[in-house]
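input
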Amino acid sequence: MPTSELTARNLTDLDGLLVLAVGAGAGLVLCRLLLAIVRRVASAATNIAHEAFVRAVTPPSLLLGVVLGARASLRWLRVEPQLDGDIALGVQVVSTVLVAWGALRIAATIEELAKTTLNSSGRTTGAMLVPVAMRIIRWIIILAALLTVISQFGIDVTNFIAGLGIGGIAMALAAQKTLENLFGGLSVVLDQPLRPGDSCRIGSVKGVVEEIGLRSTRLRTPDQTLVSLPNATVANAEIENMSKRTGRRYHMVLPMRPDAPADVLEACTRELAALMRAESMLTASSIGVEVKGWSAGILEVECTATTDTTQGSDFAPVRERLTIALLREIEAKGLNLPNKVS
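output
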């Protein structure tokens, strides 16, 4: 088709819109062809990361191809200079937004791949730092895109950046607690006293860690409520991590008659120790039966032992069974306290 005939067409004409649609379609087809080539190369490399990156950039790349193809088709249309300048500015803004969108999708892909790789290799500390780093990178991408768009509208971003620096200092002073929580979160992640899924006690709060965020650590309590603790508090609190235990401790103080004969008491302690040794889940070397003495007019015998199991569901029936057996032995020896009669 001759160029002179095309030049005579306006953007608002049906033929002009057809040329615009053809240009957008051509840009889409060309972009699809380029992505197909890149995808074929990525598949030949047998690297899952290559294919993941191609999938990440595909949607913004296709839209960018449509926009650039439509923009290129305007050279064959009669467009007023003012309108052409406005369209060029719009294309620049849209292109910046699409590039930023693609960068955000790539950052999300990097986050998923990095977490998977680090967790599979056992480097859980690095895996916990990845989301924090990616959030910072996302904000940098968004800020860079925003400054680029502002500069495209003819606004001097130098003064704006200087204003951001001064405002940043003011915000840092105003957000002192927030920054304290941020560094507290980094301290928790690096020191690793806790991980998501750990059963723990932080100060007076007991529960299971659900998330360690930038500002707070969230615990699911036994009552199934969600408690959010500021990371600054977590970093300075006394933390008891029950998930790190190597076993469970059995401890029972048995009250006996204060006038118990020495020989009967000695025989009873031997029987109590024998009952505890008969329990297979208790570690034999840890079993101890000791006469503590008198407390508030009551003779106390302390029975202690440890188990190899860390599961409360396994330990609970052992504790119940052993406690009942020890109490029955005291009753059989006649050393139990007499019932009070009102």
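quick obs: The radius of gyration is 36 Å.
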